[in-house]
Amino acid sequence: MNEVRLWARLLGHEAPRALLRHKVRSALASLGIAIGVAAVVWVVSIGRTGTERAKDELRKLGDNLVWIEAGSRTVSGLRIGSHGTTSLTPEDAAAVRREVPLLTRVSENVDDRVQVSSARSNWNTVYRGVSPEYLEVKAFRMQLGSFLTADQVRHAESVAVLGETARYRLFGVDDPVGQTVRIGRFPFLVIGVLAPKGPSADGRDLDDMIVLPWTAAQKKLRGKDATWLDDILCSAVSMESVDAAVAQVRALLRQRHAIGGDREEDFNIRRPDEVMKAQIQASETLERLLLALASIALLVGGVGIMNVQLASVASRTREIGVRMAVGATAAAVRVQFLGEAAAISLVGVGLGIPLALLGASTVGALIGWEIAVPPVAVALAVGVSAAVGLVSGFYPAWLASRLDPIVALREE
After folding, report:
1. What does the alpha-carbon distance between residue 377 and residue 395 come to, in Å, rounded to a whole number?
2. Do the beta carbons of residue 267 and residue 88 sit within 8 Å?
3. Which of 192, 215, 315, 344 has the smallest set of CB atoms within 10 Å of its CB?
4. Pairing relation of β-strands 180-183 and 142-145?
């Protein structure tokens, strides 16, 4: 019990008192640890935020999305759009729906820009002619009203579902369900409003659109002779089955379009998730790299602690000799100097965490991100800084405990 009280006194009283004798030296060593702690927290917080933003963009893309687009990927080395390309038809979509079991949902898609007007305003936006499966394929949710039904698509009914931006531009904050909008020359009844998704990774407003039955979009906005599709949007049964589903769709459409040998395909199949997954992987790799660099700051702080402790041992050699001459054990001397190193590290942590929180909010405001500091980042910084402090203080403490009391007492 007496030994426990002795060690508690060494750690809780003697160590802080020794550091206060050299305030500037101790403060500079603590500042090194504080900067290292803040750097670790910043890196982990910003890295986690970047990764979560990329994952959020992946969720916005849709549910295991397989995107079949009209037109080849390139023509003479140049990328072409699908508009005006008549290679995809509703029959292709029906065949994909029927013959590719790895796809759970399939939606036709035709789209273009159009002028839309309501009783109070008008707005130029994008219309998307789709089937009821589009809601789940693209992972949208309803905010008001209802989405399209199979009967409405089958009968090419003049109904529309608004994206949040289109709703605000046409109706403000009023409830538009049951109101009429004019899309081009034709009146459409608003039956619902989609819950907002926000901007995409490339800055496009995902909520600036009007969703219609694809049959109505073809007949009324494109004309009765326009029977092709711009895209077929699909959901695979799982993320792991996307590649196999793409292979099945490619084989089916090549057969249907009589494309043999090395002939260029008149369609292309895109996996937007691959780009976002690459971004997530790059973000995680960058986070690990920056964490390694930030850890160097903590190691530099540890070198500072070691220098302070070595200087302390050199200047207190006679004091160490006196302590050992009156009965202090080598273990007690080690505990005393390790306690001083731990105290420096603890002060650094106390300064570093507020600095990290302030820095994270400042950086977030500058880059337009809402950066949250995860508890794991603080725990990691505290744990690493404590380890650095103890490791850095071990050699000076060991050196002090190895002094010969007689030689130490002779030291001037």
Report:
1. 28
2. yes
3. 315
4. unpaired
Measured CA to CA, the distance from residue 332 to residue 313 in angstroms comes to 14
Q: At what angle do helices 23-61 and 375-401 cross, to 10 degrees?
A: 150
Characterise 313 by phi-psi region: left (phi > 0), alpha (psi -120 to 50), beta (else): alpha
Question: CA nearest 153: which of 238, 94, 198?
Answer: 94
Whose structure tokens read 């005393």?
336
Whether pTM exceeds 0.85: no
Helices assigned H by DSSP within 218-329: 242-256, 272-315, 317-325
Q: Look at 314-318, 357-361, 387-391 and tell me which has the smallest mean pLDDT.
A: 314-318
The partner residues of 324 in beta bridges, in order of sequence, read none
Query: What is the arithmetic mean of pLDDT over 37-61?
Result: 70
pLDDT at 111: 92
272-315 vs 375-401: helix axis angle to the nearest 10?
Answer: 30
Could you tell me which residues are beta bridge partners of residue 235? 65, 105
What is the β-pairing status of strands 65-70 and 180-183? unpaired
pLDDT at 45 (0 to 100)? 75
What is the separation of C-alpha 257 from the centre of its chain, rounded to a whole number of angstroms? 40
DSSP structure string for 49-98: HHHHHHHHHHHHH-SSEEEEEES-S-BTTB---STT---B-HHHHHHHHH
Q: Count of CB atoms within 10 A of residue 23's CB?
A: 9
Question: Residue 178 to residues 155, 210, 220: CA-CA distances in angstroms?
Answer: 19, 15, 20
Is the separation of the CB atoms in 330 and 11 below 8 Å?
no
- The string of pLDDT tens digits covering residues 351-362 is 777 877 777 677
Mean pLDDT of 113-136: 93
- In total, the chain counts a number of residues equal to 412
Distance CA 113, CA 121 (A): 17
3-class DSSP string for 345-380? HHHHHHHHHHHHHHHHHHHHHHHCCCCCCCHHHHHH
Residues with Cβ within 8 Å of residue 256, at least 6 apart in sequence: 91, 92, 95
CA distance 201 to 47: 17
pLDDT for 215: 93
The three-class DSSP label of residue 260 is coil
